From TrEMBL:
<dbReference type="InterPro" id="IPR023214">
    <property type="entry name" value="HAD_sf"/>
</dbReference>
<feature type="binding site">
    <location>
        <position position="212"/>
    </location>
    <ligand>
        <name>Mg(2+)</name>
    </ligand>
</feature>
<dbReference type="InterPro" id="IPR023943">
    <property type="entry name" value="Enolase-ppase_E1"/>
</dbReference>
<keyword id="KW-0539">Nucleus</keyword>
<dbReference type="GO" id="GO:0019509">
    <property type="term" value="P:L-methionine salvage from methylthioadenosine"/>
</dbReference>
<comment type="subunit">
    <text>Monomer.</text>
</comment>
<keyword id="KW-0963">Cytoplasm</keyword>
<keyword id="KW-0460">Magnesium</keyword>
<dbReference type="GO" id="GO:0005634">
    <property type="term" value="C:nucleus"/>
</dbReference>
<dbReference type="Pfam" id="PF00702">
    <property type="entry name" value="Hydrolase"/>
</dbReference>
<feature type="binding site">
    <location>
        <position position="187"/>
    </location>
    <ligand>
        <name>substrate</name>
    </ligand>
</feature>
<keyword id="KW-0378">Hydrolase</keyword>
<dbReference type="InterPro" id="IPR027511">
    <property type="entry name" value="ENOPH1_eukaryotes"/>
</dbReference>
<protein>
    <recommendedName>
        <fullName>Enolase-phosphatase E1</fullName>
        <ecNumber>3.1.3.77</ecNumber>
    </recommendedName>
</protein>
<dbReference type="GO" id="GO:0000287">
    <property type="term" value="F:magnesium ion binding"/>
</dbReference>
<feature type="binding site">
    <location>
        <position position="18"/>
    </location>
    <ligand>
        <name>Mg(2+)</name>
    </ligand>
</feature>
<comment type="similarity">
    <text>Belongs to the HAD-like hydrolase superfamily. MasA/MtnC family.</text>
</comment>
Amino acid sequence: MGVLSVPAAVRAVLLDIEGTTTPIAFVKDTLFPYIRDHVQEYLRAHWEEEECQQDISLLRKQAEEDSNLAGVVPIPPETETGEEDSERVIKAVVDNVHWQMSLDRKTTALKQLQGHMWRAAYTTGRVKGEVFEDVVPAIRKWREAGMKVYIYSSGSVEAQKLLFGYSTEGDILELFDGHFDTKIGHKVESESYKRIAASIGCSTDNILFLTDVTQEANAAEEADMHVAVVIRPGNAGLTDDEKSYYSLVASFSELCLPSSP
């Protein structure tokens, strides 16, 4: 690795989050365990709120659709208003969430509840989004040089904004010109990168994409984007062929912009 010269055509940098700006361990060891450990507490605290009841209704509907799957935990309807009845429903929701997470499912119902729980955790200071220490200084330098900086993650735009709005470096949302999630397309499909370029208002050749996932790098490259693969602690290892084929960086500080001295 070392210094990587950014092509002169590049006007914008597109960043992945997990394994690129943020340790994979933060998602695996902090965010997801937070849900498992606090879902019962969250449901009790927010039970009377309409948003929470909508989350439960969605999970109940998902459980009905999953009725043919082994191990599924059904969620009974609330029949009374008593505390005993609500605790019965809460226990079923907790068990259902744990079951879905044990299978690494990504259902809309589960993601919606997780998103609301993470929002509460971030805004109350119980969780802070982790970013690698080289990220903020490098992005500030890129922006001073006239670069636009965007985020593209499989996590929702709301989840992205929470992570960077309540980060270990404070609120750093001002560093980003825009956010994209899988609503614009999946990260392993080249068309997604063309749509992002169109949304930004430039050619794919004007964008450098940084990711730790070679399948994503390949899709971006197929769309004629410039690509560098990020090597971080905890990231999946690369094959020898991948190491020789892709431009590699271990820190954002290794990128040398065309306008840099």
